[in-house]
Amino acid sequence: MTSTPHLRSAPSPATPASTSPLLFSILNTLTYPHILFIGVPSLAYSTLKYLLSPRPFASWSLSEALFIRYKKVQNGPSSFVLPPLPPYSEEWTVPATQFNTVSQDELKRIDIEVVSVPPVPAGMQTGIALCPGVESVLRPGFWLTPDTSKGRADEKAKEGEKVVLHLHGGGYVRGHPLWIDCPHGIALTLDQRLFSMNYRKCLSDSTAFPAPLLDALAGYIYLTRTLSFPPEAITLIGESAGAHLCLILSRYLSDLSLPQPGRLVLISPWADFMMNPADLRGTYASYADYDFLLPDRLAMGARSATRHYTPEMVRGAYFSPALARAGEYTYLGDWDDAKRTRVMLVYGTKEVFEDEDKAVVAGMIRDRVDVAVYTDIDGWHTKVSGEPVANKKFRQGLLEWSSAA
């Protein structure tokens, strides 16, 4: 019998329950009165506070203050519960993407194709990925192909071609690879095919971790074995929970003794699952007014995602990479090693994750990882992914970093 000391004997009793589709629909209908009776007064209060108080920092504008306040209240009562599992058919379709950073002319340059990604090969589900009732399954992946890239959609890798493997955010409980246009802009900027895995959301015992890890691994195996991309040709990139999953995947590749991707780009990574919403400290407290993330929702997502794992495992480097101990990043290679993984970590200097993202950077530097830091000055969480000006600067920085030796 395989030993699984990382697992609880049963899912955590603190696991929040996923809401039924009917109840979630009812809660969503309450969004409009919520915005009217809670949101509008809240926006009025924020306006008065902005006009009557000194600016907390020079770049803080009224439009930003109202945007952050609106983001906090826009989902109404449904913000405080877990959504139901998405319908299977929706996971395989292209959604109504929110286009903020890519123009319609740019969008016309991108072909989108959905493909089926097979489960990981037998024997690759081991260690942290072993959990009764959670298996690797067929999953959808989405190709974004710029009109000038070397290869098209699911063709075999061309000689010298590079590719992007993208993992989206959403707190492990919501989201879709194409729900925002950040991956479209990355594909165009790098002029590379971009493949985004629609990993399972942690809303049930069978789709909680290790399910997202197995799906991300399936995408990596698909690129390296089915399409024959060399690992060093892959840029693994994610935002928020997707960046967290990128770190988990890279650590698990090391456990499997598989080659690492050549580049790792982490946008506002969620990096500490031990945050306690009842005792907020550091940037969770000091930047609460300048970021739209809700600590209670984050904690709910973390508990749902890690329901099968012991508290010690959740506190460890896999789920809380900000708490990684000395030596736990050495698998990414020494900065003097020609075969090292180059890392770019991006965060806003007014986002609640700033402390934990700085801790990840410090841990990597301590372990001699080749890590570059891109700071979005006064930016909130993942601002570079969706705000046009910040996104344009980030894409230019990404291109310059990717082009460097």
UniProtKB/TrEMBL annotation:
It comes from the Eukaryota. Transmembrane segments: none annotated. Residues 164-381 form the Alpha/beta hydrolase fold-3 domain. The keyword Iron does not apply. GO terms for molecular function: hydrolase activity. The keyword Hydrolase applies. Keywords: Hydrolase. InterPro entries: AB_hydrolase_3, AB_hydrolase_fold, GDXG_lipolytic_enzyme. PANTHER family: AB HYDROLASE SUPERFAMILY PROTEIN C4A8.06C (PTHR48081), STERYL ACETYL HYDROLASE MUG81-RELATED (PTHR48081:SF31). This is Alpha/Beta hydrolase protein. It comes from Dioszegia hungarica. The lineage of its organism: Eukaryota, Fungi, Dikarya, Basidiomycota, Agaricomycotina.
